[in-house]
Amino acid sequence: MALYPFTAIVGQTEMIRAMLIATVEPTLGGVLAFGDRGTGKSTAVRALAALLPTMRAVAGCRYHCDPAARSALCPECRNRRAAGRLASERVRIPVVDLPLGATEDRVVGALDLERALADGVKAFEPGLLARAHRGFLYIDEINLLEDHLVDLLLDVAASGENVVEREGLSLRHPARFVLIGSGNPEEGELRPQLLDRFGLCVEVKTPTDLDQRIEVVRRRDAFEHDQAGFTRRFAADEAALRRQLVTAMKLLPLVSVPEAILRLAAKLCIELGTDGLRGELTLLRAARAEAALEGDTVVTESHLRAVAPAALRHRLRRDPLDESLAGARVERAMAALFSQAAIAA
Ligand SMILES: [Zn+2]
């Protein structure tokens, strides 16, 4: 079955942008997309899978290790390297779905029972974390996932390594992935201590604009009527966006953040009373990725402005206010601060 093209998605600009930013800057801490059901969150993640460029990986590796990342090779690739057999191939960047009922075995991997019984060897059967290495791990309705699994995922996402110590197995393998969670706040709260571990948090709403709604339905209808034709219609847009992503990834290490922007980001976080420094760090990294996506090598106020709501709305001090108001609070603080900065300059 064909995947709905990423560039054919109507509206949902904040979610789309957040996914692109997380692709360019995978160390950001992933994306949490919160909002109504049926707003295309899952469609967007699957569409992203088809959009992503390919990457170089060690040929035959079950973890698709990066041949250039010498410090983050799996045990098997370390042996391959020692034996001088580190051939590489181009593979798709993985986007792995983590279904709600998944067991811990399935997620972290487990003893390969078949081989244990047949050959008497303790072999490891990699799980979803291995499959998601260097790509994306998507959890629809993350607020319904068991707490211990969410904790485990966030820990692995932060450390970049899956450590397996069970069933007589003892091994570790690289597991660097971007976590994308989606959820409907009406179906269960996400624990506040989990919220701020996500890099970006976006709100996804059912479009209320009449023309936009009509266009959503028209395109969906066209896609379902003729998937191949519809996909062809967007092929040039997809290729252009893919090139933009590749360029941005290359540009990212060259993007600098001027002192004035660092100060502005700090002021914004103080003004909003965000806890800890994680907010500021995420804000800067996201702004850098935003600049790279725009083809710029210096972060400006407008890059900061574009990413601040997604980087900060889930880090505001707990308030009986709901998340939709949190976004507005970020906007208000920026309006006040950034105009001051303009006057001062
Ligand atoms: Zn490997």
CATH class of the largest domain: Alpha Beta
- CATH superfamily grouping of the largest domain: P-loop containing nucleotide triphosphate hydrolases
CATH architecture of the largest domain: 3-Layer(aba) Sandwich
Which hetero compounds are present in the coordinates?
zinc ion
Strand percentage: 15-25%
Following the backbone from N to C, one meets helices and strands in this order, namely HEHEHEEHEHEHEHEEEHEHHHHHHH
* Poorly predicted sequence stretches spanning 5 or more consecutive residues: none
Determine the CATH topology of the largest domain. Answer: Rossmann fold
Q: Which class do the helix and strand fractions yield?
A: alpha/beta
Please outline the major beta sheet. Answer: 5 strands, parallel
Query: Roughly how much helix do the residues carry, as a percent range?
Result: 40-55%
Measure the end-to-end span: 55 Å
Integer average pLDDT: 89
Provide keyphrases for this structure.
2 domains; Rossmann fold; 15 helices; 11 strands
Question: Please, could you describe this protein's structure?
Answer:
With 345 residues, this protein is α/β, with parallel strands linked by helices. It folds into two domains: 15-53 and 93-204, P-loop containing nucleotide triphosphate hydrolases (Rossmann fold); 253-344, Helicase, Ruva Protein, domain 3 (Orthogonal Bundle), CATH 1.10.8. Helix content is 49%, strand content 16%. It has 15 helices and eleven strands. The chain has helices spanning 13-24, 41-51, 75-82, 104-108, 113-119, 128-132, 147-159, 192-195, 210-225, 227-233, 235-251, 259-272, 278-293, 301-312, 323-344; strands at 31-35, 54-58, 88-92, 95-97, 109-111, 124-126, 135-140, 161-166, 169-174, 177-183, 200-204. Strands 4-7-10-1-11 form a five-stranded parallel sheet, with helices on both faces. Helix 12 (259-272) crosses helix 13 (278-293). The longest helix is centred in the C-terminal third of the chain and has 22 residues, at 323-344. The termini are far apart. Zinc ion binds next to helix 3. Residues 58, 61, 63, 65, 73-74, 76-77 line the site of zinc ion. InterPro entries: AAA+_ATPase, CHLI-like, ChlI/MoxR_AAA_lid, Mg_chelatase_ATPase-isu, Mg_chelatse_chII-like_cat_dom, P-loop_NTPase. It catalyses: protoporphyrin IX + Mg(2+) + ATP + H2O = Mg-protoporphyrin IX + ADP + phosphate + 3 H(+). Its EC number is 6.6.1.1. It is an enzyme of class 6 (ligase). One of its GO terms (biological process) is photosynthesis.
